[in-house]
Amino acid sequence: MAAGLVDAMVGRLGGMIVDEISKEASLFLNFRKDFKWLKKKLVIVSTYLKDADVRIVHNKSVKGWLLDVADIAWDAEDIIEECAAESIYANDGNTKCPCAICPFNNCRLFFRYKMARRIKDVRDRMKTIMEDAAALKLVADLTHSDQQASTSTSQNVKWKRSSVLERDARPVAIEPKVEKILQLIDDPAASIIAVVGMGGAGKTFLLQNVFNRIKERFEYSIWLSISQTYSLQRLQADLAAKINLGDVVNGRISEVQAAEFIYSQLESKRSLIVLDDVWRPTGEDDLIRTLGLPVGNSTQCKIVVTTRNEDVCRSMNARVYEMQVLSQEESWELFCAFAFSDCEQNRPQRDLKQIASEIEKECARLPLAVKTVAASLTGKTSSRDWKSKLREIREISNKGDPIMEILKLSYDSLPAPLKPCFAYLSFFPEDERIDPEYLIYLWIAEGFIEGGGDQVEIGWSYIHQLANLCLVETEDKKYLETIESCKMHDLLLDLAIRLSEESQCAFSVEAAFNKYQTSCGCRRILLGKQSINDDVIASNSGAYSASRLRTLSLSSNDSIQNDPAKLFTGMRALWVLDLSLTKITALSGNLKLLRVLNLSRTDIVELPVCVRSMKSLRFLDISYCRNLQELPVWIGELNCLEYLNITGILGILRRIPEGISKLVSLQLLRSSEDIRFTNEGNEKLLKLEHLVHLINLREVRIRVEHVQDLKRIEEGILAPLVNMRILSIENRVSNDDDESVLPHLSAKMLAMKDHLEILYLSFFAMPAGVCDFSNLVKLHLMACDCADYPALEEMPNLRVLIMTINRKCRVLPEGFGKPRGFPQLRYLLILAFDVLEELPDLEEGAMPLLERLEVGNCRNVKKVPCGLELLKSLKVCDFRMADTNNVFGKELEEGGEYWNKIKANIPNLTIRL
């Protein structure tokens, strides 16, 4: 188990050595011989480790040897990173030596002396490792590997990013189960409904289907995930944000006051509230009342709970639905859907049917086990592979926790690069909804994603792979089928924690301070959502030299207010630091190796000066730092920065320094509002012409407020940004001569067509050639004011089309209703078309995947389009026309002829008027 993680790290380290030596950096020239010797030994060990998990998994002595190898690799990597950072630091003309008592050259000599001693220590330990290998009778393998080392290196897995994540389209007949829960919810006497069952039985999946079916019937539909060690304050904040109380329940009031606000907001509203995975009975912790939920109001508020604990149901006096394991037939159907998703009708070929049936029976009819085992066999056609899997499952069937061992088999079958990525998920708290972009940059920072390609895209492919193998759960952005967040099933999280602790490289713990004192080799530590405050940090700071720590998270400890720099003393190897959701106002310390810094939702008043020395920093999140008003001029010195999140800081958006244009590596400049540009030459602030220097930029939202900038855009100034994925341009320049004349985007913008996925234009004319943007998945056109639209229905990947405010279009093109038009469209919104007279009738095959159709404030449309009943995928149809004659209300009156016709073809359609 440990070998897979060690192998990934050792292989990465060998590549780092080659890369750094090839740079001819002055510090590396002093140690070139040592590094080359170390690389040779690491290649030998790495080659041996390729199948070590299988051959020696039960040998405790060899496990210890593996951990010693990992320890050496960690320390060698630390040395390389420190040398690289020191070279950058020494050659940076803007950086001064922090030591005031000696000349800078003497500092460098002292640094070389320290590095020489540490390298000698690594060499000595590596020699001991080779000697231990001989004693453990691994020497033959290593000798063979040594002979191959000159001609063989670790093979890199070639990844291809999936364009669309495979869907979890479970064939299990869940409809009867859904109906039974719906009956409980509809019972006027039932206020609390509990779904109870063992872990992995599919409780959450079932309830998600129920929730999606009926959420439109309620004013508030809220889903809350409850962890074993939940924070009531955080749950209240999450709940409040979903019922328009986010500004009131913000951590500055007591939990009792928050509960009172929540209660008063929900008391008179028809609400559906799901509490997923409740662990403790209310006798121990009355979660429902302390949250502020209106208990007993069974006609207004419905509370649905999932739990493994029957005592929870009894303590809540809930109506219970007991979740059973799958029937034999259901289990087989589910297995085939995942194992044979690439076969006709999801059925196995003849020679695999019998062995597939035997494997399925070993999964105990638990959906999680069935899915993960089946997914690990997708695409395998050799009976040898299937027999090997069956043998492995039967070998573990008598172990203490067979379900956990079955899940571990799926981990064992992962490609080497994915193993550390999966284990790293143990670093996130239970039920945490993980931002996939943040996760990818953490993987990059930790070195799990090797260079030589687009690391972010490779990271996305890793997430897709883990999701397709059912090892992570994903939540998609509405209608776009792009991943918005991901999380782990709690059983899989337990597995990831077990893997990390066995490899002694990561701990996700409750009493983290106590455990760290006895775990000097710990490389990652999580202190999130715990009672860690300023006094605890001050009293423990001397106990932790922490010189080997790579990753530290203090996220969500809102009792931390002072600069926690004392805790960082000696953390020379720190790569990742997460201080989000604390109340710190400042940060200091020598953190030169830092690659990821998360300061989101802190109380900092300025970007800490210590950030300036972080020359390896790639990810910086300062979103929602309400007290932060501007970025420093030196922000442009962070040459490696790829991700900068300034969401929710309006002051910064008005005063972005010119220096940001020097961030040539910047890919994502994330903001919730549009970036505004100055037009005054005497201020050293960002101007539109500076933006084009960021040639790697993939996402930007800009607001045009000056005539000169508008002309530049019409001339195509943004065309060089060919890597753009998301582009939003809002025109705020008024045309006093003729408001009906709108600016045009230059045809040069077609240079973006290969990558652009989302385009938002406000007060621009319909762009020429927009249909050539074949990868576009979302198009939002506001106030484009064209009388006719191009052949948008021919865009092959368009999923969301929003068209608002039009004063010229009288008739939409017939193509909107023609067969094979809009083949991927899920959501269509037409709003405020002042002179639109009719909507096109729909023919069989038009918009085959449309799920939601909204038409509003089109007062001149007097006729409901024919053919609505042909939109078989439609779930919501919303016609709010501001029509005084209520033509739509009459034609679509419940029980009327057209209403019955539509409902006969689409029985679950929700129609709103």
UniProtKB/TrEMBL annotation:
PANTHER family to which the protein is assigned, alphabetical: DISEASE RESISTANCE PROTEIN RP, DISEASE RESISTANCE PROTEIN RPM1
Residue span(s) of domain Disease resistance R13L4/SHOC-2-like LRR: 571-885
Swiss-Prot/TrEMBL keywords: Nucleotide-binding, Plant defense, Repeat
Disease resistance protein winged helix domain residues: 428-496
GO biological process, one term: response to other organism
Name of this chain's protein: Uncharacterized protein
This protein's record includes keyword Ribonucleoprotein: no
Signal peptide stretch: none
InterPro entries on file: Apaf_helical, Disease_R_plants, LRR_dom_sf, LRR_R13L4/SHOC2-like, NB-ARC, P-loop_NTPase, RX-like_CC, Rx_N
Domain of life per record: Eukaryota
Source organism per UniProt: Taxus chinensis (Chinese yew)
Molecular function terms from GO: ADP binding
Domain Disease resistance N-terminal: 9-89
Gene3D superfamilies: 1.20.5.4130, Helical domain of apoptotic protease-activating factors (1.10.8.430), P-loop containing nucleotide triphosphate hydrolases (3.40.50.300), Ribonuclease Inhibitor (3.80.10.10), Winged helix-like DNA-binding domain superfamily/Winged helix DNA-binding domain (1.10.10.10)
NB-ARC domain ranges (all copies): 177-341
A Pfam short name: WHD_DRP
